[in-house]
Amino acid sequence: MTVGDVYRALWRHKLFIVVLTLAVVAAAWVAVSRQQRIYTASSLIRIQQNVQNPNDLYGALETGGRLAQTYQQIVATTTIARRIASLLRGRVPYDGIVGNVSASQVDQLDLLTINAKSPDPTAAAEIANAAPQALRDFIRRTATLGDQIIPIQPATVPSVPSSPRPKVKLAIALLLGLIVNSVLALLIEIVGDRVYELEEFETLARAPVLGFVPNLELTTPTADPRPVGTSPRLEPVELGEAPTHG
Fold this sequence. Notes:
By secondary structure, the protein is of the alpha+beta class. It is 47% helix and 13% strand.
């Protein structure tokens, strides 16, 4: 099967491909609309060490970068989640905090982005803003007083959910639907025994086609209600009166 044959086969089954693809997109839309919306709020902090000697400033920056990697793992622990729940005084339950807080280092620097997810956008912002204080309390309890948590940018209440992303999922559903349905159309073309092209028929028959009979739409003649052997009945014709001469 050449590339031209593939294109012609897809064009012959275009209605099949379009209908099934629309069905896949509609199913994806229904699935996305039923998913719960999740909002993500982010705050930015800096991990800094107390430096008394200016000559140690460069080393403190490198140490801060390594500490950011460490605190990135600490932020996601249950210890920080419990402390955040305590700081929020029950406004957000512990079950809504644990597993929904994460952190990521910014470009190998001593900066750390804290992300909080929640179905409630206000709760997500409160969690992200309480996390720096929770880290401070952790540092105080572990006696690592040389480390400082400095808030750089507080979290704001998100207005757009981070998930689900309907446009992305619908685009993926459309692409997958076109690919899968096109493959199905080609399989139908290969498995089927119908010949669509004259050249394909000559190849299969190994003989040239001298002529063909077009499709004719034949109509069934209507039956005559008169009995057999009777002649058609003539309807009487009314003639006008003959003119009189005086």
